Amino acid sequence: MRFPKLILASSSPRRRQLLRQLGLEFEIIPPHTDEQRLADESPLEYVRRLAGRKAGEIAAELDEGIVLGSDTIVVLDGEILGKPETEQEAVETLKRLSGNTHTVFTGFSLVDAATGASMVDHGEARVTFRMLEDEEIRDYVAGGSPMDKAGAYGIQEDLGAVFIDHIEGDYYTIVGLPLTKVYLALRKIAQTTER
Description:
Blueprint: E1 6-9, H1 13-21, E2 27-28, H2 43-59, E3 66-76, E4 79-81, H3 87-97, E5 101-112, E6 118-129, H4 134-142, E7 164-169, H5 171-175, H6 179-194
Parallel strand pairs: 1-2, 1-3
Antiparallel strand pairs: 3-4, 3-5, 5-6, 6-7
C-alpha cells in the first residue's frame, strides 16, 4: 500500500526510528508549540491537545501531505513528570519512580494539510519500576541519558530498560509512538485517498 506524503512534526530521534521501523518515508518539520498546560486539563486531555496542536501548526504551513504530531508524558499520582532541567531534578524524579507504578500517555494526531481533516488518538501503558539503588540512579544521570526524556528515563537503547520490573499496555507508547494505532490510522487515510 502506498502511503500519502508524511511529515513528522517532531524532533524526537526515537519517533524517527519508529517510523523508519515501519518502512515509511517522511520529512521532518519540528513544531514550536506552546506546551503550557491549561487550567483543569487532565494529563490525557493535555497530551491529546498538544499532539493535535503540533500537527495542526505544521499542516497550516503546507499545501499537501499528512502531518503526524505527537507528545509523550509520564504521570505519577496525577502529576506530569516532564523532562528534567537539571541533573538533580533527574535524580529526584527517578527516586520518585523507584518502586512505584506510573502511567505513560502518548497522544498523536494526523492532519491532512490539503483538506484540514484531522484525527487524534493516544496510547497508554502502565510502567512499574523495581526499587533502584542510589548509586544506579547517580550513574545513569551522570551519563546524560535522562535529560531529554519525559520522566527522566528511556526504555530503549540505554540502562533505563533495566529499571523496569514490568509494563502493562503498549511498549511503543513508552518509546514515543503507539505504532499499531498510528499505522492503522495511516492505512485508513491511504485507503481514503486511493478512492
